[in-house]
Design goal:
With about 150 residues, the protein is α+β, with helices and mostly antiparallel strands. The protein has two domains: about 100 residues, no CATH class; about 45 residues. It is built from four helices and seven strands, in the order βαββββββααα. Strands 1, 2, 3, 4, 5, 6 and 7 form a seven-stranded mixed sheet that branches. The chain is globular and about 50 Å long. Bound molecules: zinc ion.
């Protein structure tokens, strides 16, 4: 069952906010936990009308469209943790191009956050990839992708 925690008035959401260190215009909107899968789901979003720097020239642009994405993040209290956000693209007037905005917490196209990847790399330095995958409860094909 998924249980939703409201973003404003509880300790757990406050703790996630501190831990995530999100920068404007990104905000934690709510947290859900799934006790079947024993996983946290952190939902992150930006306000309507928020601007993002064009990846090509740096001019502030409004989001043109967006696509939902999920990343595996560091475990909290030994539960898997996922971040969910819609990734905006900007249509820059100066460049006359539509480009994917990058985010601080993950590399483009990765299914993991940078912090998760760093943790996985530490484990893979100490044990075989399949053992690290077991420890992290991930597919070893995905682990190899981080490794390379
Ligand atoms: Zn531009």
């Amino acid at each position: 069952m998924w249980t939703t925690l409201s973003s404003s008035d509880n300790m757990i959401s406050e703790m996630f906010k501190v831990a995530l260190q999100l920068e404007e215009p990104w905000k934690l909107t709510h947290v859900e936990f799934d006790d079947m899968d024993q996983a946290w789901h952190l939902f992150i979003d930006f306000a309507r009308g928020a601007t993002f720097a064009c990846p090509l020239c740096g001019i502030a642009c409004k989001a043109y469209d967006s696509e939902k994405k999920t990343w595996r993040h560091l475990d909290f209290w030994n539960w898997k943790t996922y971040m969910h956000a819609r990734m905006p693209r900007v249509k820059c007037k100066a460049c006359n191009k539509i480009t994917q905005v990058s985010v601080k917490w993950a590399r483009p196209l990765s299914h993991f956050t940078l912090l998760f990847e760093a943790w996985a790399m530490r484990l893979m330095a100490e044990m075989p990839v399949n053992a690290a995958a077991r420890e992290l409860r991930e597919h070893d094909t995905r682990m190899w992708r981080i490794f390379h």
